[in-house]
Design goal:
Largest sheet: 6 strands, mixed
Structural class: alpha/beta
Strand content: 15-25%
Distance between the termini: 55 Å
Number of helices: 19
CATH class of the largest domain: Alpha Beta
Shape: elongated
Helix content: 25-40%
CATH architecture of the largest domain: 3-Layer(aba) Sandwich
Mean pLDDT: 92
CATH topology of the largest domain: Rossmann fold
Radius of gyration: 30 Å
Strand order of the largest sheet: 8-15-13-11-9-10
Amino acid sequence: MKIRQALLSLSNKNGAVEFARGLVAHGVELLSTGGTAKLLREAGLTVGEVGDYTGFPEMLDGRVKTLHPKVHAGILARRDLPEHMATLADHGIPTIDLVCVNLYPFRETVAKADVTLAEAIENIDIGGPAMLRSSAKNYTGVAVVTDPADYPALLAEMAAQAGELSLRTRFALAKKAFVHTARYDSAIANWLSALDEENRPQAFPEQLQLAFDRVEALRYGENPHQRAAFYRDPVSTPGAIANYRQLQGKDLSYNNIADADAAWECVKTFDTPACVIVKHANPCGVAIAVDLLAAYEKAFQTDSTSAFGGIIAFNGTVDGDVVAAMNARKHFVEVLLAPGFTDAARDLLAGKQNLRVLELPLARVQHAFEMKRVGGGLLVQTPDSFDVQATDLRVVSRVAPNAAQLADLLFAYRVAKFVKSNAIVFCGGGMTLGVGAGQMSRVDSTRIAASKAQSAGLDLAGSCVASDAFFPFRDGLDVIAAAGAKAVIQPGGSLRDEEVIGAADEHGLAMVFTGTRHFRH
């Protein structure tokens, strides 16, 4: 289909002049609205004004510009139906073969902290979505363009095909246009439905519209009999796992991505060099140290058995010494991720062709919502953004933690945040010593964590322990004391807090409350 007339109406004018010049070079006549027309004329291009074309000027402060039969008939007429084309001829209406529109910046407007309802309403586009939907519906006769990134490819295709765009290209553009308008309407619906009776924004809209872009279809899901795909939020979150760049290795699996996300979110919380090893979504070894090599050595010690086939995340640039240490241990790893890798590290990793190596920027920005599908519905919450600080702690025992214990307690509680509930974490010297995860009983998690440390040959004497939630009974404290621990951090809040504090005092343990729990399911 040859392009003879194009209508351009753009709020995002990036690349507009170059695109218009390319169209004119193929003999395309330009039709445009106020601001876009002015831009193109100033660039020396001949362009018809929509108001002159329809015989009606823009009116109502620009609210009505393109909502006219001469515009929409020229777009919607089916070129394969003689009666449609005869109707256009009877009314002197030429076809519009390309429509290039992007919409008022509603998302950018409502992102401003001081935006008013009136300002938001004025940035709801009406004519633009109507033209996009009309053009996309009639893709057999119209090319609809919504994304400036597509301009070069479209001009190249027209150059290669004597000014024509293929049906395949037009259908792809139509699908993109329908997604564009759907997401635009979703943004409006989400924002408006989150306003209360006095038009104040609330955290959660009454009706939630979601949008994600498919990155790839995965070989299978959690198990081989399940189908799966990976989708990315169209609004990029800096530092999120979805921003990874794969440097080498096999395709990522469903479980790889889920476990890599768990490892990455954990390692990002530390300011000092840190290493996190994850297996089945739980940290099995975490450490901080003076450098990444020392952090890796300590993290591996926690549970070398579980570390086999795990995911390793670092919060700094991985060098050759770190990779050499992994190779010396013959440490089989599914995924290795970090903000960067030196050339020496890349050279050593190249020999492990199946190892998935991911590079992604380090940033602590979190998604606005976390979501979990349940039968017939969706659970939505804000992220667990609480990273414990010393100022958050309240000493409740007779014995207060010393400086070294305080540092380990803070470290342990940050790790516990990423362990499935019920979570118990023994730590010492900036490393995990034993991790108990996902048990129905907190005392069972405590016994497992102590047993893990003992199996690894790690001494729990003088260790510190974190619990993601309160101890409902004193029995957990009894196990912790018997293992040799000397300090405990927990949120508190149990009906039996006094009983648990009494057990801590009886055993000579230092205990601090955070006031904030970290359930993770």
